[in-house]
Amino acid sequence: MSLNRSLISPTSSPLLERALAEKLARRCEAVGGLGELEPVAVRLGLMQNTLKPRFREPQLVVFAADHGLAVDGIELPLKRQSHEQVHQLLTGQLPVSVFARIQGLELSVIDCGLAAELAPHERLMPRKIAHGTRNARVGQAMALEQAHAAIRAGMEIGDALRGNMVACAGIGVGSHEAAALVLSRLTQSPVRDLLVSGPQMNAEALAHLLAIAQAAQGRHRDVTDAVEVLAAFGGFETAVMVGVMLVAASKRHLIMVDGMAACAALLVASRIASAVTDYCVFCRSHSHRGLDQALNLFNATALLELGLDSIDGTGACLSWPLVRSASALLTEVADGEDPGPSQPTPIPVAVEETVLDGGAKVLPPA
Fold it and tell me: Which of 331, 153, 159, 150 is CA-nearest to residue 251?
């Protein structure tokens, strides 16, 4: 399928925004301010272009792939290989699987480019572009044609997903580092800021990561176009996410962005159609300091800060009740309350009537 970037409409609507704020003010009179829930509720109304935002069949989608950078000795998260992480997700061995179930989120895992072949599973969607990317330090991570193929695959997935909310997270050994390289190049941010996990990070490990990243940057020093940058440095999970995000935004669906790979995908998607960021809220499953910098690139903060140390969408799961609560502020009707319209009442516009002598008079609104 193809996507006309003009189909992604900005959410800006002063009339609707004012009506949403007034509705929230009435709701909050009895209880006082509701802090950060209120701007989230306004954003949800603007995304869905309604005074009554509602969600149906919410999806948590984890995109998985292997990365050529891993051959340079990148430390494994929790010492698990990419296919082992996916197996644990699919078999309910990780907390995120439990959280998704109790929050009513449908969990799917997409094999975008794992090196291993996985056994079929009802929640596994095989969309393998290749058996992992190549090492960006010695060549392009993927061919440009593969990057385009991955984005198209993501668009097909996004078009087929049920519901009107998709939470996106990416996993795989080297995923964080590949995404950091994409973000660094597209924003001209120091890659070190995206790789430093925190003050406790081992100096030798950081030096090793920086040597790999800087060698990759030098190899592709002249690449600046967003999709070409994705091909030079990125992972298949990031590329497939780009397509999913573009289609979700074109349908005015909420996108919950969780983790470094999802941030990189969003940045690439925004270079294709800038309005895609209007449909996003940010979550975090990882306390990594580099993710702080990634969120700063979007002038964003995570909905919740819980000090988690995973990369599998746990933060999106735990943030979902907050999003539903923000929506309920506008949608759920208290006993005896007028349910009200779904759209704001248009502001009356004065009608100008031109008279024969060339003057004009303004008539009052009908």
Answer: 159
Q: How many residues does the chain have?
A: 366
Average pLDDT over residues 56-77: 88
Q: Token digits for 129?
A: 């572009």
C-alpha closest to that of 272 among 312, 232, 315, 226: 226
Dump pLDDT digits (tens) for 152-211.
Answer: 999 999 999 999 999 999 999 999 999 999 999 999 999 999 998 888 888 888 899 999
Q: Looking at this protein, which amino acid is placed at residue 260?
A: M
- Whole-number Å distance between alpha carbons of 218 and 142: 17
Nearest-Å Rg of the Cα atoms of the chain is: 23
**Rounded-to-integer distance, Cα 52 and Cα 16, Å:** 11
Angle at 361 between CA 359 and CA 365, to 5 degrees: 160
Say if strands 165-171 and 59-65 run parallel, antiparallel, or are unpaired. parallel
d(Cα 247, Cα 154) in Å, to the nearest integer? 8
d(CA 63, CA 238): 8
Q: Over the range 186-201, which residues count as b (16 or more CB within 10 Å of their CB) and which as e?
A: beebebbbbbbbeeee
